[in-house]
Design brief:
It contains three helices and twelve strands, in the order H-H-E-E-E-E-E-E-E-E-E-E-E-E-H. By secondary structure, it is of the alpha+beta class. A hairpin with a 6-residue loop joins strand 10 and strand 11. The termini are far apart.
């Protein structure tokens, strides 16, 4: 046994020396590697099977966790996208307002709508600028599209604005196409104004733009007020029925412009025309622009 082991050891050493010094055993080693490849694969099979099973279970757990994480991130991103959409729309409105403020000659100040009058029979809004900010009674208010109304009540840091469509409000206008003058009065409908006492033969038609005429020294001249929507002629009546749609987005504008005219209006403003007796709301404190009211 000892002799055999010694012989095998000497033979192994001799083979290693020959393999290291000469290339005689390279073909034999290649053939041996081909034969032993299947043996290596079989002996390694249990380990690879275990790694595959562990990887499957581990991958599923990781995928579930990653899926939950992605769902959470997706929800957060959707929330941010909603906010981004609102900010984008707000940016567009501010740019429109900035462009409109660049077109006016009077001094303007940006204000924000912070509230609305809960009374359904009055069209009033509350803005975040008041007497401490230099706002005065009767100051015109407009948005990016046209005139909205005028300040009728002052508080230290807020103000109430009477909109054009309130039933107590009237504004002198003129047809931009030919200069025809008229009085646009509120109807209580936020989407409609009426031109009263317009002669049946007057040159006014659907689509005409109505702008402020500047008469009454309340509103500056040249601001868009409304667009004529309907003109009804009745041969038996001396006056035509003219309905118009305000150009300003009275129900949608959030950012407004306070326009300071070159000449400040007097502080004591006359009352507007009274409401009908069947109305349950008080009369708004605002100056009426009608000549008949001014001559009282």
């Amino acid at each position: 046994m000892g002799v055999r082991l010694l012989v095998l050891a000497v033979l192994a050493v001799a083979l290693m020396v020959v393999d290291a010094r000469f290339d005689l055993l390279k073909p034999a080693r290649k053939q041996a590697s081909l034969v032993l490849m299947d043996a290596y694969w079989i002996t390694d099979l249990p380990g690879r099977l275990w790694e595959g099973v562990a990887s499957q279970f581990g991958s599923r757990t990781e995928l579930v966790a990653e899926n939950e994480k992605l769902k959470t991130e997706n929800l957060l991103l959707q929330g941010r996208m909603q906010k981004l959409a609102a900010l984008t729309e707000q940016n567009v409105r501010l740019r429109e307002l900035l462009n409109s403020s660049a077109l006016v000659n009077e001094k303007v100040e940006v204000a924000e709508l912070i509230g609305m009058d809960p009374n359904p029979f009055t069209h009033r809004i509350i803005i975040n600028k008041g007497e401490r900010d230099g706002v005065v009674l009767g100051q015109p208010v407009l948005d990016a599209r046209g005139l909205m109304g005028q300040v009728v009540e002052l508080m230290p840091y807020t103000s109430r604005v009477l909109l054009l469509t309130d039933t107590t409000h009237s504004i002198p206008v003129q047809v931009n196409r030919n200069g025809l003058r008229a009085i646009a009065s509120g109807t209580g409908n936020p989407e409609r104004l009426e031109l009263r006492h317009v002669a049946d033969t007057a040159d006014i038609k659907e689509g005409d733009l109505l702008v402020s005429s500047g008469l009454g020294q309340r509103f500056p001249a040249g601001y868009p007020v409304a667009t004529v929507k309907e003109v009804i002629h009745d041969s038996g009546q001396p006056f035509a029925i003219v309905r118009a749609v305000p150009t300003a987005a009275l129900n949608r504008s959030r950012y407004l412009l306070l326009c300071s005219a070159t000449a400040a209006p007097p502080r004591n403003a006359p009352m507007t025309r009274p409401r009908p007796r069947n109305s349950s709301t008080p009369t708004a404190v605002a100056r009426c622009c009608r000549p008949a009211c001014r001559n009282r």
